Amino acid sequence: MCADSSSTPSTFSSDSKFSSTSRKAASVLSHHPERITSGEQARQLAGIGRKIADKIDEFLQTGHLRKLDKIRASDVAVATAELSRVSGIGPAKARQLIDGGVRTLEELRARPELLNRHQTLGLRYVTEFESRIPRQEAAAIERHVLHRVAELDGRYRATVCGSYRRGAESSGDVDLLITHPDYTSDGAETGRRRTVDGAETGRGRSAAGSATARGSGRSAGGRLLGAVVDHLSQDGFVTDTLSQGDSKFMGVCRLPGAQYTTHRRLDIRLVPHDQYHCAVLYFTGSDEFNRQMRAHALEQGFTLNEYGLRPLGTTGVAGEPVPVGSEREVFEYLQYPYRPPEQRNL
Ligand code: DCP
Ligand code: MG
Ligand code: MN
């Protein structure tokens, strides 16, 4: 405990988290002309009691104060929760910001250089993204998007999945799934191969893997998704891009016109044509329903995921995906009683 260091005790003595007794003690110590070397010595001073003396001894012996560590840990937890309100900021980024002295959204607004594009937009729209989308607005978004996609190319197929498809009265975001017959998992039209679990393999990965690739550098999937995003941006419906890859767009939208004023989160996923129904099933959720259905699939000797339904051989190795012509067929393969999306809110 160093009585002549003025900065630490003064921040201490002004911090509202500490009692007036503690603040008084900090002031006494900071004004003491000599270095304090024990709790016993400090106790001789006015305003220092047994408890403070014990804290001084704890600090001198261990270099820490358990109580202070606890307060700091809970401050970090509060700041992490606050910063995590921003789309694109997770625990690691929050930690990095806190270590850099940023703990609130207000402080974050003053440090734009610390944020990437996604996080910058996440901060700009933080309260708008936190407000839920009423079902009737989600329905208007669905009509708009399905109309615009069909207008672009009638061969696209599109479904709004997520909580909206499960009939929710309000949703956190809009989850749009699209496919196109020119885009399949065997890569026939894409010039490259995809494995059954959807991972891309072979040449072209690095070139087309760049999320910003435009035009000729794009894969077939990237072009099909990019065309949709561009068309949805043309009339101002898509207002911003948080991130965009060959098969996944994360962005921001708002319906044209004066009725809807709030910016909404929009996810668009392009999936191979032959994987569409398994993807619709997966992205309709709920997470818990998906878990239960996957567990049931395993009991029936199948592995089910967003890419397909595959029988497991006796050795447990997954075979070729079975052809799936509808969501209902997945239930039938698994002898699982069909549940419409409204009954998947587990
Ligand atoms: N999903 C999943 N497991 C995850 C994340 C997602 O199974 N870890 C699936 C089920 C979800 C769907 O993707 O229903 C869409 O994800 P969202 O996070 O958009 O969740 P919801 O649409 O269900 O809810 P919200 O209204 O909050 O968007
Ligand atoms: Mg959703
Ligand atoms: Mn989503």
UniProtKB/TrEMBL annotation:
Bias-annotated ranges (Basic and acidic residues): 189-203
Gene3D superfamilies membership: 5' to 3' exonuclease, C-terminal subdomain, Beta Polymerase, domain 2, DNA polymerase beta, N-terminal domain-like, DNA polymerase, thumb domain
BP terms from Gene Ontology: base-excision repair; double-strand break repair via nonhomologous end joining
Compartments where located: Cytoplasm; Nucleus
Enzyme active site: 55 (nucleophile)
Limits of the DNA-directed DNA polymerase X domain: 1-345
Membrane-crossing segments per the record: none
Keywords per UniProt: Cytoplasm, DNA damage, DNA repair, DNA replication, DNA synthesis, DNA-binding, DNA-directed DNA polymerase, Lyase, Magnesium, Metal-binding, Methylation, Nucleotidyltransferase, Nucleus, Sodium, Transferase, Ubl conjugation
InterPro entries in the cross-refs: DNA-dir_DNA_pol_X, DNA_pol-X_BS, DNA_pol_B_palm_palm, DNA_pol_lambd_fingers_domain, DNA_pol_lamdba_lyase_dom_sf, DNA_Pol_thumb_sf, DNA_pol_X, DNA_pol_X_beta-like
Biased composition, class Low complexity, residue ranges: 204-217
Cofactor: Mg(2+)
Family matches, as Pfam families: DNA_pol_B_palm, DNA_pol_B_thumb, DNA_pol_lambd_f, HHH_8
GO cellular component, one term: cytoplasm
Molecular function GO labels: class I DNA-(apurinic or apyrimidinic site) endonuclease activity; DNA binding; DNA-directed DNA polymerase activity; metal ion binding
UniProt region (Disordered), positions on chain: 177-219
Residues covered by the Helix-hairpin-helix DNA-binding motif class domain: 40-59, 81-100
Catalyses which reaction(s): DNA(n) + a 2'-deoxyribonucleoside 5'-triphosphate = DNA(n+1) + diphosphate; a 5'-end 2'-deoxyribose-2'-deoxyribonucleotide-DNA = (2E,4S)-4-hydroxypenten-2-al-5-phosphate + a 5'-end 5'-phospho-2'-deoxyribonucleoside-DNA + H(+); 2'-deoxyribonucleotide-(2'-deoxyribose 5'-phosphate)-2'-deoxyribonucleotide-DNA = a 3'-end 2'-deoxyribonucleotide-(2,3-dehydro-2,3-deoxyribose 5'-phosphate)-DNA + a 5'-end 5'-phospho-2'-deoxyribonucleoside-DNA + H(+)
EC number: 2.7.7.7
Role noted for this protein: DNA polymerase that functions in several pathways of DNA repair. Involved in base excision repair (BER) responsible for repair of lesions that give rise to abasic (AP) sites in DNA. Also contributes to DNA double-strand break repair by non-homologous end joining and homologous recombination. Has both template-dependent and template-independent (terminal transferase) DNA polymerase activities. Has also a 5'-deoxyribose-5-phosphate lyase (dRP lyase) activity.
Family: Belongs to the DNA polymerase type-X family.
Listed name of the protein: DNA polymerase
